[in-house]
Specification:
By secondary structure, the chain is an alpha/beta fold. The protein is 45% helix and 12% strand. The protein has a single domain, classed as 3-Layer(aba) Sandwich (Uracil-DNA Glycosylase, subunit E). The longest helix is centred in the last third of the chain and has 23 residues. Bound molecules: zinc ion (ZN).
């Protein structure tokens, strides 16, 4: 298990493409069977240097907590290593890092419209709350959901997230205890 704080200092470097110092590197258990990928860091993530500390992270932490899963046990990152810019090379760097991080994982959880569109090729609205069993980029099941900070704005949105996380919990338990 890796500590988020430790990760932060280990990785706190500027983007080597654009020089941005607002880089928010992946955190959490490096060996976790689960990788969670969001779209981009929000201000709170940049301040703390830890992805998913903003509103989205709060919802995720809370809903996973209800299921007895500590989010720190899971690997977490964003597609964009720093706030979105117009540099395609920064985007490419982020994409490559996701694919590198995704290697050997057993479950990928995509949270956001950009990541679902990029890696699955469909609108997140079509796949919200669903599990894609095969995809072009990943060799494990891919769980798709809209940004949890958005989905809590409607009751059904939260239900979909909770049902998806329930499936995730069940698969995660099988992986850990088998
Ligand atoms: Zn950059």
């Amino acid at each position: 298990m890796t500590d988020d704080f430790e990760d932060f200092f280990e990785n706190s470097i500027a983007c080597h493409v654009c020089g941005s110092s607002k880089v928010v590197p992946p955190v959490g258990n490096k060996n976790s069977p689960i990788l969670i990928v969001g779209d981009f860091p929000v201000d709170e993530d940049v301040t703390t240097g830890v992805p998913m500390t903003g509103p989205m992270g709060r919802v995720l932490r809370q809903e996973l907590g209800h299921l007895g899963i500590d989010v720190k046990q899971l690997r977490r990152m964003n597609l964009w290593k720093h706030p979105v810019n117009k540099n395609p090379a920064c985007f490419k760097l982020g994409t490559e890092e996701v694919l590198r991080e995704a290697k050997d994982r057993k479950i990928i959880l995509l949270l956001g419209s950009d990541v679902v569109k990029l890696f699955i090729g469909k609108s997140v609205m079509d796949l919200n709350g669903l599990i894609v069993e095969s995809s072009l980029y990943f060799s494990c099941p891919v769980f798709c959901c809209i940004n949890p900070a958005i989905c809590i704005k409607e009751v059904r949105g939260l239900v979909k997230l909770d049902l998806l996380l329930l499936s995730l919990q069940s698969m995660y338990r099988k992986i850990i205890y088998d």
